[in-house]
Amino acid sequence: MRAGPSQEEIRRHNLGALLRHVHLSGPTSRAELTNRMGLNRSTIMALTADLTAAGLVREELPRETGRAGRPSLVVRPESARVYVFAFDVGVDRMVAARVGLGGTILDRRETVRRRGAFSLEEIVGPLAAFARQMHRRTRPDTVCVGVAAAFSGGVGRDDGGIRFGPNMATVEDVPFAEEMTRRLAFGLPITVGNDANLAALAEQTRGVGVGCRDLVYLHGDVGIGGGVIANGQLLGGHLGFGGEVGHMIVNPDKGRLCGCGSLGCLEAEVGERALLEAAGRFGPQVGRDAVRAVVDAADRGDVVAQAALSRVGDWLGLGVANLVNIFNPEMVVFGGMLREIYLGSAAQVRSRLALDALPPSREHLRLRTSALGDDATLVGAAELAFSQVLADPLEVLARAGS
């Protein structure tokens, strides 16, 4: 017979739960925390005292109460003191940020990534330099509690190595996490996740999907990535490669060649190149600005651009219908370049859903665009970096401080 959790395990869980509430919701009164967590006031007082003593939160009087009687103290995250480093490696850009507890971006650097042959040094070098620059600007009393990166490719769950990345021209088994950890030399291992998976988590915790437990996020960045959240949990798959919805075959007979080597993948029919070629605009200008130019031209009445969006939107709708039939999500979120493509082809997407999605599965479905915009993947990386301190605040803080 297995013994129940010890008092220390319960305390550790409650500390993490309280810190998570404050991290995600911002300044929160003790009274509200009492209601949310279902604990008594004295327990909440003891938990906040522990987190305050550790320098993770602070308590202060509310600015305005509007009520008679003694006001409930407000618990605020120590955003300026406790932070993580978050990195976002996309096809065309690389971003590094120092993000404070509570999700506040304290410092940020960004550079263009050249398309072409993959070079680990050309990615790790600039990102590590950005991190060192930002680290030198921090106060002596600050502490870094995590480091994480979002990468546009298939990421191994156990070692953070890159296993595939058709649009990044990667070779197999790139030791990205290992090399970043070595170059940063912060004494903290870097955790790496697929960019679309992390963006799905970001939208669920801080974006348009807050409170949604069944969500599919579709991310456009030259190709198409996806993240699936079912019953509140990210579906990662056996080895961490789950959610690669861009490589779902939608046009096997006459499909376009995908970077992965297959014919008719969703990303081959919907991605950047498919849209630009259909619009007669594939050439020197590529990337999100080129995609936005097609959408803008269609809005102004360009019939070629309109036809291109209609074609791509039809394939996108078929892909979404397949996902709706399989996962029955409450919400589908379009992010990255797909925000513009969806907004320009919403009629075609909805028409396909009406034809191909099962009526019970689409009945209450909501289609939305990303609330976090181009920062969804970066925000997801930051949340991944914070995950350990939210699970065991005092232990992680002590380890980071030492």
Quick take:
The protein contains 14 helices and 15 strands. The protein is α/β, with parallel strands linked by helices and 402 residues long.
| Terminus-to-terminus distance | 38 Å
**Main sheet?**
5 strands, mixed
Output the structural class: alpha/beta
Q: What is the approximate shape?
A: globular
Helix content, binned percent: 40-55%
How many helical stretches?
Answer: 14
Report the order of strands and helices: HEHHEEEEEHEEEHEHEEEHHHHEHHEHH
Could you tell me the strand content as a percent range?
15-25%
User: Kindly state the mean pLDDT as a whole number?
Assistant: 90
How are the SSEs ordered, and which strands pair?
Elements (H helix, E strand, L loop, with lengths): L6 H19 L2 E2 H8 L3 H13 L3 E4 L13 E4 L4 E8 L3 E8 L3 E9 L7 H17 L6 E9 L2 E2 L6 E3 L11 H9 L5 E5 H12 L8 E7 L1 E8 L2 E2 L31 H5 L1 H7 L9 H12 L3 H25 L3 E6 L1 H19 L2 H4 L3 E4 L6 H16 L1 H9 L1
Parallel strand pairs: 4-7, 7-10, 11-14, 14-15
Antiparallel strand pairs: 1-3, 2-3, 4-5, 5-6, 8-9, 11-12, 12-13
Q: Explain this structure to me?
A:
The relative contact order is 0.12. Helix 4 runs parallel beside helix 5. It is built from 14 helices and 15 strands. It is 44% helix and 20% strand. It has a five-stranded mixed sheet with strand order 6-5-4-7-10, with helices on both faces. By secondary structure, the protein is of the alpha/beta class. The mean pLDDT is 90. It is globular and about 65 Å long. It has helices at 7-25, 30-37, 41-53, 120-136, 176-184, 195-206, 266-270, 272-278, 288-299, 303-327, 338-356, 359-362, 376-391, 393-401, and strands spanning 28-29, 57-60, 74-77, 82-89, 93-100, 104-112, 143-151, 154-155, 162-164, 190-194, 215-221, 223-230, 233-234, 331-336, 366-369.
